[in-house]
Design goal:
- With about 220 residues, the chain is of the alpha+beta class.
- The protein has helices at about 10-25, 30-45, 90-100, 130-145, 145-180; strands spanning about 50-55, 65-70, 75-80, 105-110, 115-120, 120, 125.
- It has a domain at about 10-145: Alpha-Beta Complex (tt1808, chain A), CATH 3.90.1570.
Length: about 220
């Protein structure tokens, strides 16, 4: 699947992200509903091709993360939760954990600092104002694979590599069947290519108008 991936800190998506946050700051916009849009756009732009961020999707458990990362096969690859700068990030994380939020690969952020959990283990905090650290964080986030994901990807890749051999085997089987088929074993065909209708077993009947009217017939 091409992992681990690399994200360059010079990517234009980081310029757009910084510009959006600057604009929000100048407009005195700090609430979560607005500022999370900037990070969601960053995630969507830098995610691998074919992946997407599903915003505010309620899980069967009733938990509703700000974003669920889905890959090409619609498998869940991670979770994202945004908070605003007025919140205490560590306190908010503790609340989410108490509610049962998944911590397999979950990114919490408040536009200034990010905390990543992988395999339920907290990774070192990241200063989001440092582009190099932010780029490395997102690369680590998107590169994460659970064992069942790795197994699935391996199976898909193996099947993809086996397709040419499977196709050749199928062609050989069809060729052998045709070569060993007995002449006349196939149903006769009409010129249209359709099987000919079987001959009628009904007794022919003389049209009523041509029947003999004598008493000896």
């Amino acid at each position: 699947m091409g992992f681990p991936m690399n994200i360059a800190p010079t990517h234009k998506a980081f310029d757009a992200y910084a510009a959006t946050l600057t604009d929000y700051h100048e407009r005195h916009v700090t609430h979560e509903g607005a500022v999370r849009f900037a990070f969601q756009t960053l995630l969507t732009t830098l995610a691998p091709t074919g992946w997407n961020i599903i915003a505010e999707h309620t899980m069967p458990s009733g938990i509703r993360p700000d974003g669920i990362v889905k890959d090409t096969y619609n498998l869940t690859r991670g979770y994202w939760e945004a908070k605003d700068t007025a919140d205490d990030l560590d306190t908010e994380i503790a609340k989410k954990i108490a509610r049962g939020y998944p911590l397999t690969n979950t990114l919490f952020e408040d536009t200034r600092r990010a905390v990543l959990y992988q395999h339920k283990q907290r990774q070192p905090d990241v200063d989001l104002t440092d582009r190099k650290k932010l780029a490395a964080l997102l690369a680590q986030f998107f590169s994460f694979e659970e064992p069942d994901i790795i197994a699935f990807g391996t199976a898909v890749e193996a099947f993809r590599q086996d397709i040419p051999a499977l196709a050749e085997g199928l062609k050989a089987t069809i060729h052998n069947e045709r070569a060993t088929a007995k002449p006349g074993s196939s149903p006769p065909s009409t010129t249209s290519g359709r099987p000919a209708a079987p001959p009628s077993t009904r007794r022919s009947q003389t049209p009523r108008s041509k029947r003999c009217s004598c008493s000896t017939c």
